[in-house]
Amino acid sequence: MAVVALVLGTCLGVLLFLLLGAQVEMFRGLEQVREQAGLIDRVTPVDLGKVRGLAPSEVGLPATLDTEISAVVLFLSDKCVVCRSIAASLDGTIPRGLWLVLEPGTAPRDAELSQELGFDPDDVIIDWGREITHRIGIEATPLGVVVENGRLSRAATIPSSRQLYEFLGAARPITRQQPKLLVKSKGA
Length: 188
Description:
Layout: H1 2-37, E1 44-46, E2 70-77, H2 81-90, E3 98-103, H3 110-116, E4 124-126, H4 131-136, E5 143-148, E6 151-157, H5 161-171
């Protein structure tokens, strides 16, 4: 009886091991299929061209961005489903270091557009006539533009809210602490 239980336990263990291996291989294959089909959401760098290195106020953004050490300006359109998804994930709150520029397509007034996407109208920039977008020269949304030391430094498409938070984290400056100097006294 004990031998039969041992054999059954061993067989079940081997079967479980094989099924686990098959599942791992299936997920690897699925990831490769998603990769080939372009279904993996990745931030795609976008060339800023002639506006790279300009102060944000030179392209129509608020002058307060000219003094920011590190910030991300996120362009969202009310016509874009991904933009609406990102706006919904923010749930009406804007993380520190993030500036929102909303591009209206169907909403007639800025207050309606802001409230429709869940934001206080005073917390967002409305790009009527897409003037800021045209000055930057990039017609894609959702788009994140990084401001470093008061200058436009780089841009990328933001395909999901998960990628937005990763992009925000990558755009933050790394602050390094000054190493403490070890001072040895003559008597030591």
